[in-house]
Design goal:
Keywords: Transferase
Helix content: 40-55%
Organism: Jejuia pallidilutea
Strand content: 35-45%
Number of strands: 7
CATH superfamily: Gcn5-related N-acetyltransferase (GNAT)
Mean pLDDT: 96
Distance between the termini: 27 Å
Shape: globular
GO molecular function: acyltransferase activity, transferring groups other than amino-acyl groups
Low-confidence stretches: none
Number of helices: 6
Protein name: GCN5-related N-acetyltransferase
Structural class: alpha+beta
Length: about 160
């Protein structure tokens, strides 16, 4: 059974950071390189960074299947939009329908927060994720390049899904 457990404790932040370390090193090193992965994990996905983001209004959810953590989501309400900041699942669990289940969870959460859309950013070279988001009803609405420091940028597409 899949569950979405809201991360609020230090231990849950550490669990999320461990998931991030595993997923990012496996998936993103070939897309953005080891140096940028190392930088982004420390800046955005360490337990301390996650705690800080929660204090700034982000909500983190650990995705579990039969009590085993398989991924995580981070969201933030921005006016009438729910920003999906992070959505990651460990490699052995991809392609099993968890993304579709998570999207139902996110849509329910968005509606409860009085949002009429969900948006996200995705690396332009992350073809599998782009295809998955398109299958889930997201549309590419443009490009966005963000300087994140130390000479690194996030070179992404912005995608949006309107809710009915």
């Amino acid at each position: 059974m899949i569950e979405f457990i809201k991360a609020t404790t230090t231990e849950q932040c550490k669990t999320t950071a461990l998931l991030a370390n595993n997923i990012w090193r496996e998936h993103y090193t070939k897309i953005i390189g080891k140096a940028q992965v190392d930088f982004m994990l420390e800046k955005f996905q360490s337990a301390n960074a996650i705690k800080q983001q929660i204090a700034e209004g982000y909500m983190y959810y650990i995705i579990t299947v039969e009590a085993t953590a398989i991924g995580y989501i981070s969201i933030k309400k921005e006016d009438k939009n729910l920003f999906l900041s992070k959505f990651y699942v460990i490699k052995p669990e991809r392609g099993k329908g968890f993304g579709k289940t998570a999207m139902t969870f996110l849509e329910t959460k968005a509606k409860a927060l009085n949002c009429n859309s969900i948006s996200l950013t995705v690396n332009k070279n992350n073809g599998n994720a782009i295809n998955a988001y398109e299958k889930l009803g997201f549309n590419n609405v443009g490009t966005i390049v963000i300087d994140i420091g130390k000479g690194f940028v996030m070179d992404d597409y912005k995608m949006c899904k309107e809710l009915t």
